[in-house]
Amino acid sequence: AYYVFGVQKVEPTGVFSASGDRATIEARVTEDRTFYVNGKVDNTQTDFATKSIRYTLYFVDGRWKIADYK
Prior knowledge:
With 70 residues, the chain is mainly β. It contains no helices and five strands.
């Protein structure tokens, strides 16, 4: 089983906050994905949608890393 991706777009919403080694950022994510099982499209996992996602980041070993998203 595998995904094939069409449109993928990430847009900032302007929501951002940081304190120490933690930050929160929100983005609008548009994704067009088709899921295939045994060469056939599985419509239960195929989607084209735009969602607002809030990411929680932690600064670890000199890099920002995604700790969680909703």
